[in-house]
Amino acid sequence: MNVANVFQSWGKVLAGNIPMLSIEITRECPLQCPGCYAYGDSHLGEGGPNLRSVSDSRGSELVRGVYRLVDEHKPLQVSLVGGEPLMRHRELSEIVPELRRRGIYTLIVTSGVIRIPAAWTRLPQVTVAVSVDGNPEDHDLRRKPATYERILRNIADCRVNIHWTVVRKNIEEAGYMDRYLSFWNDRSEVRNIWVSVYTPQHGEESAERLTAENRAELAAYFNSVGRKYSKLTMHPGLMRAFLEPPAGPAECLFSTLSVNYTADLRTRVEPCVFGGAPSCAECGCSMSMGMHWLGRVRVAGPLRASHLIRGSLAVGRGVNRVSGKGNGLRWAPEDRQAGPDLIQIGQ
Fold first, then answer.
1. Could you confirm whether domain 3-323 is CATH 3.20.20.70?
2. Helix, strand or coil, per DSSP, at residue 104
3. How far apart are the C-alpha atoms of 150 and 289, rounded to whole Å?
4. What are the distances in angstroms from CA 248 to CA 90, 123, 152, 292?
5. CB-based contacts of 190, cutoff 8 Å, min separation 6
6. Got the DSSP string for 114-137?
7. What is the C-alpha to C-alpha distance for residues 178 and 146, in angstroms, rounded to an integer?
8. Which sign, positive or negative, has the C-alpha torsion 131, 95, 289, 207?
9. Per-residue pLDDT tens listing for the chain (347 residues)
10. Where are the domains of the chain?
């Protein structure tokens, strides 16, 4: 999302709407990736259901359900995730062109395990992002059957973005990141390379979790290679935001300006797409970093974009109350009461 979209987001907030909508359109996935947050026991709240246990929709019921959420929230951007969203490729073949017709930016995040329709990737305002977690020796073990070989076959004739979630080993192994970036930067199918960093849950101890030294080393690396890899979307401002992430959901523009639904199309995932209790102090989400950085853009004198957006939150909440919309903007103290279809975490 660029600076222009920040101001479009401001307008959406003033109107009492949510600029960004994320939908886990299916719980089905042929992968069993270790560390997958979507299938974590706390993704839908401690003691709540697991993604594999919620109801799922297909066919016209799924299409109508997605349109219902779009009509309800009137977003600027819709992210269609899973599970594996291409398990519902027939429904997506109807949904994606319709969202394009409505002028809504659409992001589809896939493992690349299923053939991607090339026509989708040529539509304006539509982006398909393929998750590739590391070089083949690691990725193919973690994400089998979505191996490098299969991904390359399934993105042929397409134009996609590659999304990489960096974990500790990627930083500590000499030459690892250059090897990854060189491979994908040279592929004609690749538009851009997006980078996120593994975001742990509170109290998590895992091999993927970065140390403070890892984070500093990673920021220095990306600041030094920004021009070397033309498809790498890594502005120095993103690294500043990465080293100084929002303290919590209330301070995170991405969390504040987005709403996320799981596969039953009714239960919300809170406080952001990770669900559960993410460690915001160690956040590496590319969208969160991008919004945090853009929120610091100066508009006039000391006035920043975040001031305009946060100032408009009160107006948006007022619009919601007057219009009877009780399910829009969040993270005001009086709005933190979880209803039966709203799962939130304590702070």
1. yes
2. coil
3. 30
4. 38, 36, 38, 12
5. 159, 160, 161, 162, 184, 231
6. SPPPHHHHTSTTEEEEEE--SSHH
7. 22
8. negative
9. 444 454 455 455 445 567 889 999 998 999 988 767 666 666 666 556 666 667 889 999 999 999 999 999 999 999 999 889 999 999 999 999 999 999 999 999 999 999 999 999 999 999 999 999 999 999 999 999 999 999 999 999 999 999 999 999 999 999 999 999 999 999 999 999 999 999 998 888 899 999 999 999 999 999 999 789 999 988 777 788 888 888 888 788 888 888 999 999 998 888 888 888 889 889 888 877 776 556 554 555 665 545 455 555 554 555 555 555 554 554 443 343 333 343 332 32
10. 3-323
Contacts of 98 (CB under 8 A, 6+ apart): 67
Structure tokens at 103: 């002028």
Does the pTM of the predicted model rise above 0.85?
no
Nearest to 25 by CA among 83, 111, 72, 110: 83
Of 179, 31, 219, 50, the C-alpha closest to 109 is 31
| SS3 at position 314 | helix
The answer to whether 113 and 150 are in contact (CB under 8 A) is yes
Dihedrals phi, psi of 77, to nearest 5 degrees: -135, 140
Kindly provide the b/e burial profile for residues 228-237, where b requires at least 16 CB atoms within 10 angstroms of the residue's own CB. Answer: ebebbebbee
Which residue in this structure is represented by tokens 């919300």? Answer: 268
